[in-house]
Amino acid sequence: MLTPLAPARSYLYVPGDRPDRFAKAASSGADAVVLDLEDGVGPAGKDAAHEAVAAHPRTSGPQWWVRLDPARLEDGARAAVQEGTAGVFVPSAEPELLARVDQLLTRVEAERGVRALAVIGLVETARGVAEVRSLAAAPRVHRLGIGEADLAAELGMRPDPERHELWAIRSDVVVASALARIAAPVGPVQVDLSGLEALASSTALLVRQGFAARTLIHPSQVSIVHRALAPTEPELIDARAVVAAFENAQGAGTGVAVDAGGRLVDLAVVRSARAVLARAALDRQV
Known about the structure:
It is a single chain. The protein is an alpha/beta fold. The protein has two domains: 10-229, Alpha-Beta Barrel (TIM Barrel); 233-285. The protein contains twelve helices and ten strands. The strands form two sheets. Strands 6-5-4-3-2-1-8-7 form an eight-stranded parallel sheet. The chain is globular and about 65 Å long. It starts with 9 loop residues before the first strand and ends with a helix. The mean pLDDT is 92.
C-alpha cells in the first residue's frame, strides 16, 4: 500500500549525472526534487547518472523523486528504490509501461524492504492520450503529468505561445484524474528561462484548467510558480464569504444561502470555495 504523500506544487528536475547540483536543488524551495535519468542526461552520461542517483541519500527536506529512462527501466528502479524516495516519474506513460514499472518496483522493494513508491505518469504519446483513463487508474499512480514538447512532436503540432492546440488534451488529463480520484495533474515545464512573466501567466492558466502543480527546470522558477498557484486575495475574500454564508444558512436552518452580492450559494459553489481555501493553506504549510 502506498504511503499518503503531501501535495506538492513544484517538481524541480535536476540532471542525474550532476550530483553537484542535488543539494542546490534541495535548497531551492521546491516542494519536490526530481533526479532525472531521462531527457536531462545525454547518452554518454547515463551510466554516471544511474550510479549517482543510486548513491544519493534522500535526506529530509523536499520530496525526492526519480524520473526513469524507459530504455533502462530495471537500472532506474534499482537507482530509485531506497528509503526517502517518494516515487518515480514514468515518461511516455502507457498502460503496459506502467504495469512493467509496477512489477520492477515491487520486486526491488521486496528485496530491500522498502515501502512502496508512488508513480507520476507523464502523458507524452498519442497512445497515452487515448488511454489516459487507464493511466490514471493504474497501480501506484499518485497523479498524472503532461509532457507537451514530446506530445506536440509526436502529434505533428506546432503550438502557439499559449499552447491552445493542447488545451483539449489538458482537459482529458484533468477529467481522467478526477474520475480516478487521484491528485490534480502536474503541468509541463517552460524551457524559456527568460520568460518569467510568461511562466506566471501560463501557470495561472493551468490552475484555471484544473492543474495543481508544475514541473520546473531551474530554481529561479520555483517562487514564481508558487505565487501563481496560490489564490489571489480577492479569490480568498470571495471564498471566505461563500463559506460563511453557507455555514450561517445551515446554522439558521434555512437550507438556502445567499451571499452579500445576492448570489445563490449551493453545494457546488461551496465546494469550489473550499478548494480555494485549501490552496491557500497549502501555500502556507508546504
